[in-house]
Design a protein that fits this description.
Layout lengths: L7 E2 L2 E2 L6 H4 L31 H9 L5 H15 L1 E2 L14 H8 L1 E2 L1 H14 L4 E8 L15 E8 L2 E5 L1 H5 E4 L4 H9 L11 E4 L10 H4 L3 E3 L13 H6 L1 H8 L9 H8 L2 H15 L5 H20 L3 H88 L24 H64 L7 H63 L5 H102 L1
Parallel strand pairs: 3-4
Antiparallel strand pairs: 1-2, 5-6, 5-10, 6-7, 8-9
Length: 670
Amino acid sequence: MPINSVFLSEGIICGEHMNKRLLLAISFIFISISSFAVVDTTVGLTAPGNVCGHFQDLSHYLCDGLDGDEAKANAVYNWITHNIKYDIQGMQNIDRDPDKIVEKALKERKAICEGYAMLFTEMCREAGLKAVTLDGYSKDWTSDNGDKLYIPRHAWCAVLINGKWQLADPTWGAGGLVQSPTMIRRIVNKIMRRNAQHSKKLAFRYRYNPGYFMQDPMAFRLKHLPADPMWQLTDTLMPREVFEAGDSAIRKFNGISKLQQNSPELMRVAELEEKQKIFELADRAYKYNSRYPMVLAMKHTFRAMSEIEKAFTDSTVEEGRLLLIDAQSALKRSQEYLAEQKKEFPAHYSELKKKNKAKNQDAKQTQRSLKTGDKRTIAQYDKYSKSAAAKYGKLKAKNAEAKKLRTGIGPTRIAGIETSEREKKTGSRELQIILDSVTARNGRIAAVQSDLDKQHEIISGYEAANKTRMDTLVHKLALADSFLVQEAISRLSMHDNYDDDVIRYNKEYSTVKHHEVDTLQKYYAAYYDSIVARFDARHKLRKQQFGIYTKNIKALEQYRKWNSSDESIEGRYAGVVNEYLGKVGEYEADLKAHAAYLKGNQKIFTALAKQNQKEIKLAAYMDKAEEMRKFLEEKAIEERKRLDTRENEKQKVAIEKARVKLKKISDELN
């Protein structure tokens, strides 16, 4: 069965029909695959030209002298993946002669997936290994969880190694397509801070991946599903619906499956001739996927051709006529199955187009919500930043006022105060009132100081809490940023809201950003407001304290005027003034700390705003990527529809050719 599809699945090419214009917007992104077998990646990379013209000679050159099935199959895999290019032009052509595919692949050193697979199969067989080419379904960049399977468009291989059937996909193991740095690629490079250079024309690039040789069948079927379910190589056949549901469903099903890499039935099927395989495959493939009636059409066409050939060589006229009647019936059924397949095309491709539009709307809403939230956050941070700058500016005036508080005040100033002409006697009521008022005000100074100490303790606690909160916030922002960058890169790789990786990264980003980060930011801002308010409250308490000190200083000066004989007053005065000047120094330190806090947070709020601006830029990149993805998927849908229609028409042509031959033989018999 001809396979002609070009597909880029997570940066790996296989073959699902898509024109150059589509592919030019997508560059190769290579991924690692888990559950790889340990293979020798150095055996069989090269061979002299004189043995490369025929697969038999090449196979013997590579494999003769090697010990063991694995070494031989590995050598074949290595040579093909290092020497056969993907045929970019060939993927446009479905009218190929199956008998010449292997010959052409060796002669031109290029092929599409069926050429890779058939060459691998024939070379392994020549080396004495049992091998088969498998047709099946594979998931590409347009695949979404829940997509229905119709016509298989990929080919890979199974080879018997040490009594176990192993899977190999030399197409995906060989490399991928690259092209000039398009708008999307330039964005990816910018995000990743790299200056990658690419060819100006679409071209195949070798990028050897040993992981597609002897990969664990459980991992292999995350992206590959054989049309003939018996080649899943597990004891429990995975339903088609599980494969369609996506990776999570497949991994869950893998938990109840066990490998079964050999059986008498597999061995029997592997020994069948190609036409016999078609007959057997058709019924199993259709039973497994009733959306694939074309396979039954192919079966009945082969059957008709076989009956026609028998009629042509049969010696009795009557027997020949019976064979022709049977052939005519088979061709009729074949045509009916083709009509059934074609009838599904309009609804199928209409559904794909609607889904593509829905994905685009979902993505737009996702990006719109992200940008709206970030813009709101930026506005809040800008407000905080401007407020911090304004408060910082006002502190300059307070600093100037603080310096004036020292003017005209000193501990020895009392010595220069002239006494009154009418001094009061020591112990007089007026002097006692002054001393009592100083004592009372000292109590108020102590009470204010207690409030100041409490405010300082609260501010210190809040600052420590906010420092811890900011450390956590920085970590969480970096984490959220990494998830958003991964989502952006995934979208730039043409993934969408329906794909597992985008869903995962978006969920992880939302969890961190909208729960952890937003909560941290909310509390940080609330504590910031409280700290600033308490700084302001401390400044007011300081001024209140300074007013009390000033009154005490003036009271003691008045005492000095009324009683110059009390020598203790000078020491008491010096103590009060020194306390006052010390508090002025503390006030200046408070102002400095307040200014530093405002300045530091102004920078923090600016940085946080820039972080959100970066997210808006990433969202803009994702918007562009989504528009490109929508455009590409629209084109891919049209191309696949055209290809399926052409394949259907090709089968009709085969039926008509058979009918012409049938009529000719029928006329001869009559």
